[in-house]
Design brief:
The chain has 14 helices and 11 strands. The protein is α+β, with helices and mostly antiparallel strands.
Length: about 400
């Protein structure tokens, strides 16, 4: 049955005070952190770096010289009166530049099949940004057998985790293949849809964590070796590196609801907005000095840079992460402009990532096709594969 809006609204109204208290407390803490940020801005870059150097795991250390800036919102000054003007700027930035992204989707193993089997599919999109509109897109699929899944049950968290790991391996390897194909080219950029700082893996067992870390390190090594930049794009980031830095400097109260993007988007004083990030604005570039997962990154543990970029009018800024070699080579601003261009094309989200997602996604009709192929093949090979009555019923209805 469909959702009953009246029930939802009734409960929301009854519990409005709980939401209100949370909102008020969050706003109060944001002002505290923004006051601390205003104080940090008054410190010279040398003083700030010196104070943070004595605090391991401090969250972030500035890379760019901050002394000349009145705030940590660096205006890009990109404003256009017409769509034609913005398109002209995008062409100026991206003409002849190859941008690339890969995404994935999957069919998890489950009780609908009598044996554990899964499908992982990745899709990629490369836009050459030529006048002729050249692009390439394709998919690659991988069947995960009972040997790959190595589980006794037909589904569950462990089996799903192995599918997710395989997808991550395939996605990162495809980006590495792109690096190799474009070695040394100064007009190529790969987008990575996710973070280069794999903090999410800390929740898993040691083997799973090691797999994710290995994939990211291979990506970082290949980017530097082949001299092709990669930018990690996190549209909705809850990273707390800058808030961690402020906590290290000023002993602020901890609160997990305060994260960098929320802190930076608008600056408040006495509950009034005094400064906002506009489209295309960014923060200075920082080195990620987060404690935890980076401790097992080896030489890359202090070799990931990040900035926050305002990519739409209404939402919070996106987080961009770069290998340190890109910053050291003086190419960070060029890469950020390429990101701005892709975001402008995509209307607030990088077009190349959005298209890769559309290429990769396994639709319901693909899922049904997969099960039919699997069933026919199993019958041909005299394998005892059975579909549940529920799956057969769904297939008939659709």
């Amino acid at each position: 049955m469909p959702l009953k809006p009246s029930q939802i609204l009734s409960q929301l109204n009854a519990r409005r005070s709980e939401f209100s208290r949370f909102d008020e407390e969050t706003f109060r803490l944001i002002e505290i952190y923004q006051n601390a940020l205003s104080e940090a801005i008054t410190l010279s870059t040398d003083e700030l770096q010196a104070r943070l150097a004595a605090k391991p795991g401090c969250g972030a250390i500035p890379l760019e010289l901050l002394d000349e800036f009145k705030s940590w919102i660096l205006a890009c000054g990109l404003k256009w009166e017409t769509r034609e003007q913005s398109n002209a700027w995008v062409r100026e930035q991206l003409s002849g530049v190859s941008t690339f992204a890969v995404d994935g989707s999957q069919i998890y193993p489950g009780k609908d099949l009598s044996i554990p089997v899964a499908l992982v599919q990745i899709g990629w999109f490369e836009n050459l940004h030529t006048e002729a509109g050249q692009y390439f897109k394709d998919i690659e699929s991988y069947i995960m057998t009972p040997q790959d899944l190595k589980v006794d049950r037909l589904g569950g968290e462990l089996a799903d985790r192995k599918v997710n790991m395989r997808r991550f391996e395939m996605e990162t390897q495809r980006i590495i293949d792109y690096f190799e194909d474009h070695e040394g080219m100064e007009d190529a950029l790969a987008f990575f849809d996710g973070s280069l700082v794999a903090t999410f893996a800390e929740a898993f067992d040691q083997e799973t964590q090691a797999t994710y870390v290995r994939c990211v390190l291979n990506l970082l090594e290949a980017s530097e070796h082949f001299k092709v930049p990669v930018v990690a794009y996190i549209d909705t980031s809850t990273a707390r590196d800058l808030t961690g830095m402020l906590q290290s400097l000023f002993a602020l109260p901890d609160n997990k609801s305060i994260h960098d993007a929320k802190l930076l988007d608008k600056f408040y004083a006495n509950k009034k907005c005094i400064q906002s990030m506009e489209w295309g604005d960014r923060t200075p570039i920082f080195r990620c000095a987060r404690s935890g997962i980076l401790d097992v990154y080896g030489k890359h543990g202090d070799r990931i840079a990040f900035t926050y970029l305002k990519t739409n009018r209404d939402g919070l800024p996106a987080r961009l992460e770069l290998p340190m070699w890109v910053y050291d080579a003086g190419r960070a601003e060029q890469v950020i402009n390429w990101v701005r261009g892709e975001v402008a094309i995509g209307g607030g989200y990088p077009y190349v990532i959005e298209t890769a997602d559309q290429v990769a996604v396994v639709q319901e009709r693909d899922r049904q096709s997969f099960f039919r192929i699997l069933q026919d093949w199993a019958k041909q090979e005299d394998l005892r594969l059975r579909l549940s009555r529920k799956m057969v019923s769904k297939a008939r209805r659709r």
